[in-house]
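Hi R.,

Here's the chain you asked about this morning:
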Amino acid sequence: MLENVVSEIIHRMAKLLPMEQQKDLQTTLYVVLGKYEITEKSTDLRINDVTWVDDLQRFIERKRISGKSERTLQQYQYQLTRILSYINKPIDKISEGDLNEYLEKYKLIRKVSNVYLDGIRLTMSSFFGWQHRKGFIPKNPAAGVDPIKIEKKIKKAYSDEELEKIRRKCENIRDLAIVEFLYATGVRISEMCALNREDVHINEREIIVFGKGAKEREVYMTPISCMYLKAYLNERTDDNEALFVSARGDNKRLMPSGVQAMLRKIGKEVGVEKCHPHRFRRTLATNLLRKGMPLQEVQLVLGHTKVETTLIYCEVDKDSVKADHRRYMAA
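And here is the predicted structure, written out as C-alpha cells:
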C-alpha cells in the first residue's frame, strides 16, 4: 500500500517538479510515511438517518410558542442539527455515551472553551428532556451527562476613569447618547437597538424594554442620559422610528455590530481593554450594589430570572467588604 501511495503522489507531481526533486520527494515520502500503517479509505456509502428531522422541528415550534427569541431558536436549530447528524441515529436510540462522545470530540477538534461546550450540553438537555417528558422517547440520555466544569470569573466593570475616557472620546452627540444610555439603563445591546422613539418616555425618564423570552420590563434613565438623548433626537432630520440610527448617512436602524465597532474603536484609542456594550450592563449592576441597592432590585433592573445570574454580573469591591465587616461587627 505504501508503494502505491508514493507512486501516485510522484505521478501527480511529475509535471511540477524536475527529476531530481521528484527523487528527493520520493525518498522523503518513504521515510515519513513508513512510520504509519496505511489503509485505503472505505468507499461504502453512509446511510444517513433523518428520522430526527420531524422531532427537531416539533421541539423548535414548541419553544417558539413558549416565547423563545428567533436568535435562540436559530441556535437550537444549528447545534441540534450538528449533534443529531453526527450521531446519525433515531432519537430514541441515542445513548448517554453518544452524547458524551460528541462533546469530547467537539472539544478536541474545535478547541472551544468549557463555557461554550457546556452551552451545547444545556441544549442537549433541553431537547432530550422535552422529548422524554412528552413521552416521545423512553429515557432521557442527557440526564446522565455531567455539567462541564467552568471556572467562574467575575468580569470587571468599567472604572470611573475608564468611563470618563470613553465619554471624552465620543466623536458626536449620537455616540455620547449611546454610551450614557447603555450605562444608565443597563439594557442589552439587542434591546437598545430594537427600541423605537415612542418606547422612550423622556420626561418620566422611563423606558419599556422587551427582553429575553419576550418579557417586558421597565428601565430608567438618568438626567444626564436624558439630556444627551434629547440633544441627539432634536438634531435628527430623518423619519425613522428607530431610537438610534446608523452614522453612515443612510439613516437605517442601528445594529448591534455598529455599536460594538464604535466602542471597539474608542477603547483602542483611549487604552480601555475589552470595551464592549455588555460591560456597561455589568458596570451599572456593580455600582448599584456598591451604593446600597438591594440585590433583588438590581435583579429586576437587569431583567434576570434568577438572582444567581445577577451575582455573576457584579464585581464586589474587597475594600468595601472589609470596611463593612468592621462596621457591622463592631460591638
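One quick note: The chain is about 60% helix and 5% strand.

Cheers,
M.
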